[in-house]
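Discussion board: Methods & Data

I've been asked by a reviewer to show the raw model output for two of the constructs in my manuscript, not just the figures. I'm not sure how much to include, so I'm pasting the format here to get opinions. Each protein appears as its amino acid sequence followed by a line of discrete structure tokens. Is this the kind of thing reviewers expect to see in a supplement, or should I convert it first? Here is construct A:
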Amino acid sequence: MSGLYSCYEDYPEASWLINFPIAHRGFHSGDGECPENSIKAFESSVQKKFSIELDIHLLTDGKLAVFHDNNLKRMTGIDKEISKCDSSMIQKLRLSGSDNQIPLLEDVLDVVNGKVPLLIELKNMRKVGEPEKALFDIMKNYNGNYAVQSFNPYSLHWFRDNAPNVVRGQLMGYCRGENLAYNIRFLLKNFLFNKSSRFNFINYDIRWLPSLVIKRLKVKGIPVIGWTARSIPEYQRAGKWCDNVVFEGFDPSWPVDKECLIFQEKPVDLNSPFMIHEVPQPTH
């Protein structure tokens, strides 16, 4: 545990990380009515005063697209890696058969304009430097609260060296579907960040809860966010261990009843073999 704790670095006051509900990819509907990572979903988040979790990819022309997947197919029907596209290409596409475009980060900033906090996941499994610089160049004059998070501890290390005042979060989880290099998977699974990450908070896969390492981090006062609750029971359960929980598919600001459901993906099976047998143990 001492090895993991030594990777933590305190940061200026950022109570907004835990005081606002965090809408996963914006407050979306799970379909074409209000697609994930769309301007419409971000406008809905602002209206509800929810923090926004979003994902960014570096495009070939140096722009940053707000999109989760490495491939465009699930959300647009086009089988192409987003990293091989430029901004003119991606803005011709539409999300989930709707009229909503894939937004650029600068367009999202114009909409949000500091009204709610942003939790920005940097998708970079390539060489560190260019995507991180592109993000910081856009954000350095932004007048609003934001944090950068990544599965890649070397991306966070770049921010510590080059933009130390940016709040940094280490994403940790099962990582299925994430295009992670073997060495990064090994670091994440075994909590071996050395001094690469230097995180200010942890964003932790709720499928791994309860976790001894999370209990110890909280005792040390290290902020812990959980991702991603897709039902009310998951949200309530994760809240027992986390300071805040990223949510999707319901409105946590409403009374807890059936009317607060927006859409419902298959919830996590807490009795599944993964939950019982595949929870990693921290390195002491």
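Construct B, same format:
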Amino acid sequence: MRLGNDISAIVAGGATGLGAAAAQKLAEAGCKVAILDMYREPGEALARKIGGIYCHLEISSEITVDTAIDFARGENGPERILVNCAGLALDQRSVWRDNGRIKLHDVPSFERLLQVNLTGTFYMATKAAAGMMELSPLEGGIRGIIINSASVAAEDGLEGQAAYAASEGGVLALTRPLARDLVNDGIRVVTIMAGRYDTQMFTERSEDVTQKVGTTQRQPAGMGDPAEFADMVRKVIEDDDINGQWVRLSAAKNK
């Protein structure tokens, strides 16, 4: 897909981190960008910076998803690009011993992760796809693309990441069935799995857990720059032959 000022894009979770980097990259390419995020202040600030728009989003609520998408379409026109970066992280063992007592992962937290990371991604993807189906195809028969972000925990979940890995693994598993459902309508689906990137989600986690992730995850040390994720987003969008695939990004550097 050729990027330009005739292309509208929605970035869910675009106020900070990987989503913010993707929003900036798409705006630099001339796209009309809508940032949908629960964090209003950074979302509005970034929208002003890149010449985009912001709308509040609670991705786990289907009502707010509908409202936010409708607002974005009203301001920028129907989207041909959706980048899903909204999500939560949680580090808690499934079962563990604490001073002789056996404790279990609390179910509400597990369900919350699934609701945000997996169900929310599904909400955004299917509702965007429904809108894209109504658009006229571009060159090559392409109507749009959906890029979902996931974590490398989808394949390599660490100690204390049972819930997080399950939610991210679900996003990964959605990729190919969604792509097959939409291929005849010219809509592509790709998932990008990110490793250790210098984002708010990663740095806000406790120091001991951050150290554990950094030392046991099977990838080189050092955190990546979110701009590298954004570069991959653009590459995937511009290559119409990439569909139904997932790309693993791990920071191959030391700091």
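Answer (T.O., handling editor elsewhere):
This is acceptable in a supplement if you add a one-line summary per construct. For B, something like: DSSP finds nine helices and nine strands in the chain.
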